Amino acid sequence: MRMPDKLSAYCRKCQKHQVMKVKQEKGGRRSGGLNWSHRRMKHRRRGHGNLGRYSKKPVTQTKMASKTSKKIDLRLTCPECGKKAVMNRPRTKRIEIFRAI
Ligand SMILES: [Zn+2]
Fold first, then answer.
1. The pTM is what?
2. In terms of CB atoms within 10 Å, which of 28, 40, 77, 88 comes out highest?
3. Rounded to an integer, what distance in angstroms lies between the CA atom of residue 63 and that of residue 97?
4. What CATH number is given to the structural domain containing 83?
């Protein structure tokens, strides 16, 4: 998929169309911690079960690769107010952002 790096889009803050910059956002940080209720339940369940060692079937390779494309995260930035907006996230294998005039 080819995307121009600038395109005209509506800014909700300025309430008009602007030539906005397109940027691909990469890799959001995943929070590894557990929240309060999860921590409590983890503590309560201590001493029970087999930690999923025998009951859980392994995820098969075919199941993991059922989708061949990924949703990409494109953000539009308004040059006037600096407001960022998320574009509709299209599915594509490859993205190429080319320089528009
Ligand atoms: Zn704006």
1. 0.58
2. 77
3. 31
4. 3.10.450.80
